[in-house]
Amino acid sequence: MSAEGTGVDLRIEGLRAGYGGAEILHGIDLEVPAGSVAALVGANGAGKSTLLAAVLGTVPRTAGRVLLGGEPLPAGVRAATSRGIAIVPEGRRVFARRTVRDNLLVGAWGRRDRAGVRADLESTYARFPALERRGGQPAGALSGGEAQMLAIGMALMSRPRVLLLDEPSLGLAPVVVDAVLAEVRALADDGMTVLLVEQVVRKALRVADRGHVLRLGEIVVEGAAADLVDDVAVTQAYLGR
């Protein structure tokens, strides 16, 4: 794995958030250095997806703050995207009736640099050759793994500084999960900052630089991913595996 960047792209400090007065996150502190993958792992109901939503501000933050490049990030999707955060939500949300190419161009919505968009489209095709081969086909005809790569490609077309990935392995065969997570690692090696939410703990930790174990809205263990991946005591105590 590549060395982590020297700066911190995403910092979460004392974050508390929840729904309808029920607090789900209880004071989260987490840093994602530039050009690294941070894996946030935990069982169902731990609060992983809520944390991503709180970063975006789609779940109300009741305390704490989120900083992007050292500057406070206001709540709201528009503020997050305009500042360089992109999310690949759970469930491979693509426009099934539109072509693969059109989906990618949707990811570049709002950009006015046409030459840059064309260059990024070619770069995305180079990263995911299957998307270029199927560029004129409806996205609904893609396999699960291809659709996940398309969802990631759409996010990349916005030229994000930080990429949030919510359960990219969901519903995929193990060999496809390996391919998708290998691309996540490659993105970080190319300079992208990634916060990866996953239930496939060992696979996620193997591509991450640091791991954070979330349990009932609190980070209970964190450290170098290589140190956590084979820590049976941690896995059994906090993830019930």
How would you characterize the overall build of this protein?
By secondary structure, the protein is α/β, with parallel strands linked by helices. Helix content is 38%, strand content 28%. It has a domain at 8-93 and 159-239: 3-Layer(aba) Sandwich (Rossmann fold). A hairpin with a 2-residue loop joins strand 9 and strand 10. The longest helix has 16 residues, at 174-189. The chain is globular, with a radius of gyration of 17 Å.
Find the CATH superfamily of the domain at 8-93 and 159-239: P-loop containing nucleotide triphosphate hydrolases
Structural class of the helices, strands and pairings? alpha/beta
| The CATH C-level class name of the domain at 8-93 and 159-239 | Alpha Beta
Tell me the β content.
25-35%
- How many angstroms separate the termini? 26 Å
Q: Low-confidence stretches at least 5 residues in length (pLDDT < 50)?
A: 1-6
Protein name: ABC transporter ATP-binding protein
Domain ABC transporter: 10-241
GO molecular function, one term: ATP binding
Keywords: Amino-acid transport, ATP-binding, Nucleotide-binding, Transport
How would you summarize this macromolecular structure in one to three sentences?
The chain has 241 residues and is of the alpha/beta class. The chain has helices at residues 48-56, 77-83, 100-107, 114-127, 129-133, 144-156, 174-189, 201-207, 225-228, 232-239, and strands at residues 8-19, 22-33, 37-41, 61-68, 71-72, 85-88, 162-166, 193-198, 210-215, 218-224.
Topology:
Elements: E1 8-19, E2 22-33, E3 37-41, H1 48-56, E4 61-68, E5 71-72, H2 77-83, E6 85-88, H3 100-107, H4 114-127, H5 129-133, H6 144-156, E7 162-166, H7 174-189, E8 193-198, H8 201-207, E9 210-215, E10 218-224, H9 225-228, H10 232-239
Helix pairs in contact: 3-6
